[in-house]
Write a structure and sequence with these properties.
Number of domains: 1
Strand order of the largest sheet: 1-2-3-4
Distance between the termini: 65 Å
Number of strands: 4
Shape: extended
Length: about 80
Amino acid sequence: MKIILRIMVASILVFGLSGCLTNTSIAVQATSYNIAECKKEDVTISKETVELNGEHNWIAECNGKVYDCTYLAESDTGCYEIIE
């Protein structure tokens, strides 16, 4: 019985912690996917919000440019450069 309990606890820890080790946010992934010249490691996210309807908004900075981005699961992701 102790062995089964230890295996269960170990499994929960391994699967739980594995998500933390590979955590790349949706915002970073979506930004790099939508802006060809932006790699994930070059993206910085700020002002990230999630609305009750599931709409996800953020500001992304990449290679000296700033983008206003939106993601909604039922539609698509859009990132548009903010020109000041």
